[in-house]
Amino acid sequence: MADTGLNAIAEYVTALSSLGIRLGSFVFLRWVNNTLCAGRPQMSDMLIRSVADTWPSLYVPSFIYNFTHTSPYEIVADELDIVAREAPVVEDDGDLDLGEDEYAVRVDENTELDVEETIVLEEKDSRPLRTLLTGLPSPTSLLLSALTFAINLALAAMVADLVYRGKFFHQAHDLSMARTGYVSDSSAKILVREPDAKEYPLFISYRYADPPYVNVAPGGMPHDSAWRSGGSIAWLDNSTDYTGTFTLNRLTSDTRFQWVVSNNHTGYFTTAPRPGHTSERAGTVGTFTFLHTSCLKNNFPYNPFAHTLSNSGLKHLANALQDIKAQFMLFLGDFIYIDVPRRHGSTAEDYRREYRQLYASPDWPAASKELPWIHTYDDHEVANDWSGNTTGIFAAANDPYEHYHISVNPPAARVGETYFSFTQGPATFFMLDTRRYRSPNDDTNGTDPITGDPTKTMLGHQQLADLLDWLKRPEAPGVRWKILVSSVPFTKNWWFGAQDTWRGYLGERQIILEAMWDVGLKGGVGVIVLSGDRHEFAATAFPPPPDGKEEIIGLGPIGIGANPLNPLLAPASAGLRTRRKRWPLSATVHEFSASPLSMFYLPIRTYAESSTSEDYLSDVCIKYIPDGNSKFGAVSIGSPKTSDQSILHYRLFVDGVEAWSYTVTTPPDVGGGGRAKDAIWG
Q1: CA 275 → CA 262, 271, 411, distances in Å?
Q2: What residues contact 666, with CB distance under 8 A and at least 6 apart?
Q3: How far is it, in rounded angstroms, from Cα 135 to Cα 146?
Q4: Whole-angstrom Cα distance, residue 170 to residue 536?
Q5: Residue 643's closest CA among 665, 621, 626?
Q6: Contact 381, 336 (CB under 8 A)
Q7: Residue 249 banded pLDDT, cuts 50, 70, 90
Q8: Is the separation of the CB atoms in 273 and 279 below 8 Å?
Q9: How do residues 569-593 score in pLDDT, each as one tens digit?
Q10: How far apart are CA 671 and CA 329, in angstroms?
Q11: By three-state DSSP, how is residue 16 classified?
């Protein structure tokens, strides 16, 4: 009985620990290590230890005990035969030998009973499904037992592999690379990393890379495709993690160039069209196209047979680039995940290692050889939901961001700051820094419930002022779009992790929205918002309120009976002149939020419209596509010569395949105010 009870306990422990390994490893490798544990080191460590340590330490001994104490046979029949017979005569000085297979019981002096037991055994079924699904050993099959045991050990090993292989075996200290950063209509920035001193000094050369007679008048001279020197870098050291920057100047707009660095790296780029113009190149005539996305993690979804630095999202992007002629990639943050699946440290070297591992991916060259990348950052370049400004670990986190990304980014909107602004072709861009200047995240929506004024800020006073100035700024002829770039979603429709997005800063968001609607009220220029972060896609429209807004335009005469000295007797608006501003529906702002390029997507739906008014919905869902481990958007702008409006065409790619598209036009550039403009908008 004791052995039977112990066997039952061991079987229960084996099945339970097997379930823990299998369910825990699947959820960890697919979702939980990212969704719940990022930025929560204690929870992450607990999951890692449970799947790779605690559950296996219970499973292995209990499995072995079950395997060695489980009989391969089961009793199918058990018969007892009892025979009464005359007792033999036994002499006083002798003993009676009853034999080995019989058990005799003396009833009296003349009778005894012989008891014979017959047991029929049958080999147990191998129970393949039970063995493979529960992790319990098979009663009769050594192969099945070994297989289910190996499955659980392999799952535990996969968790450990994802967490530790890159850290210990692929630190990429010897990474040698070069890539194209920001490219204007007349210049280009090239980032280079070279730790091998034998390669110094580094030289860069560049040349015209289009066919020699492109855009050449009949009888004209072909373009000069000879190599030209672009400068040199004498020395690199650990202060910049062996990175440096080349700048190529005096380039021709809307022209393809090739560059080569002396450490055997090369790439291509096409200079931007002049401000206010679109491309005149074959295949892209009349258009201006760029890409955007965010969130990048190597070896995700996890593949135990892939290189630990492989990146399926970069593969999808590289394949799509064969058909998309893009000027550049706008990458909107979470280029690294320092805290996923586990933070291995918080020094500058720990952060540098994460950047090196992305650039050391075998899939990086194909996704960047002909595509310039420009960057902003988000929380996981520092820590999950970072709102600590420049305190604590920020300096260590900012070190590689400055060397690998800021150094080849567009010019800062204000010298010394980390938000950027530039104009290319038919669009002008403002790239926000949503981390460095924000108020701490809390449980409020950032709005005073009485006045509606902001109670906290995401941008800080100076960045907000510069953004509003950019929105108010008149643009050069032909610049038809203002594109606001935010690392976190502008919409409030995402309820999961909402306080880290603009949903937690609605007061400041309203100020920006009204300024964007003002752009539409003037007409001729449209406004869109590009964002990432959510690991899902959503297109959202922000229509202006139908009743507009009452605004103060000055002081008026104080009439008879007014008593401005006694606020109890005078109305709140006494002495003020107001008017109602009405924005046209054509001033509607659109947001396209696309991510991740290579990461998990949430197993639950987290985006939904919500409103406190029956008459007005501020955030209107146009399209919501949550599934897909790889998503990026392609924005193409065209300005037909025969049209008064510019057309913006958006295409979404999911796992490398175009999944959805949408078209927006600029507000009409005509006189009139308010909703009168809507009659000709479309």
Answers
A1: 33, 12, 16
A2: 480, 481, 524, 525, 526, 645, 646, 648
A3: 10
A4: 30
A5: 665
A6: yes
A7: very high
A8: yes
A9: 445 455 678 888 999 999 999 999 9
A10: 36
A11: helix
| β-bridge mates for residue 631, sequence order | 654
* Per-position b or e across 488-518, b if 16+ CB within 10 A of its CB: bbbbbbbeebeebbbbbbbbbbbbbbbbbbb
Tokens of 315: 């593969």
Give the model confidence (pLDDT) of 339-361 as tens digits.
888 889 999 999 999 999 999 99
The residues, ordered by sequence, that sit 6+ positions from 140 with a Cβ below 8 Å of its Cβ are 72, 123, 124, 125, 126
Other C-beta atoms closer than 10 Å to the C-beta of 610 total 11
Helix 2-27 to helix 142-169 angle, to the nearest 10 degrees?
Answer: 40
Q: What is the pLDDT of residue 93?
A: 54
State whether residue 454 is helix, strand or coil: strand
Name the pTM for this structure.
0.87
- Token representation of residue 680: 């000709």
343, 33 contact by CB (below 8 A): no
260 CB neighbour count, 10 Å cutoff: 17
**Mean pLDDT, range 300-324, rounded to an integer:** 93
pLDDT digits (tens, 9 = 90+) for 471-483: 999 999 999 999 9
User: What is the torsion angle, in degrees rounded to the nearest 10, for the CA atoms of residue 353, residue 357, residue 360 and residue 363?
Assistant: -160
324, 653 Cβ separation under 8 angstroms: no
Contact of 312 with 629, CB cutoff 8 Å: yes
Whole-number Å distance between alpha carbons of 140 and 133: 16
**pLDDT(32) > 60:** no
**Residue among 292, 662, 680, 650 nearest 524 (CA):** 680
Contacts made by residues 669-675, CB under 8 angstroms, sequence distance 24+: 669/523, 669/524, 669/644, 669/645, 670/523, 673/521, 673/582, 673/584, 674/548, 674/582, 674/583, 674/584, 675/582, 675/584, 675/585
d(CA 179, CA 200): 18
Whole-angstrom distance, CA of residue 589 vs CA of residue 41: 39
Q: Structure tokens of 649?
A: 């065409």
* Ranges assigned E (strand) in 29-129: 73-86, 103-106, 111-123
Adjacent-strand bridge partners of 623: 539
For the ranges 171-180, 495-504, 526-535, which has the lowest average pLDDT? Answer: 495-504
534-550, pLDDT tens digit by residue? 999 999 999 999 988 88
Residue 549: phi and psi, rounded to 5, are -145, 135
Instruction: Report the interhelical angle of 55-69 vs 142-169 (nearest 10°).
Output: 160
Give, rounded to a whole angstrom, the gap between the first and last alpha carbons of the chain.
83
Q: How many residues does the chain have?
A: 682
Strand duo 373-375 + 329-331: pairing = parallel
pLDDT at 676 over 80: no
Beta strand 481-485 with 427-431: parallel, antiparallel or unpaired? Answer: parallel
Two structure tokens written together for 73: 């046979």
Among 340, 336, 382, 371, residue whose Cα is nearest residue 356: 336
Q: What is the Cα 56 distance to its own chain's centre?
A: 31
Query: DSSP assignment of 653-675, as one string?
Result: EETTEEEEEEEEEPPP--S--GG
Q: d(Cα 663, Cα 656) in Å, to the nearest integer?
A: 20
Q: How far apart are CA 188 and CA 354, in angstroms?
A: 26
Closest CA to 652 of 637, 636, 632, 624: 632
Stretch 622-643: mean pLDDT: 94
Pairing of strands 481-485, 526-531: parallel
Query: From the centroid of its chain, how far is CA 26?
Result: 19
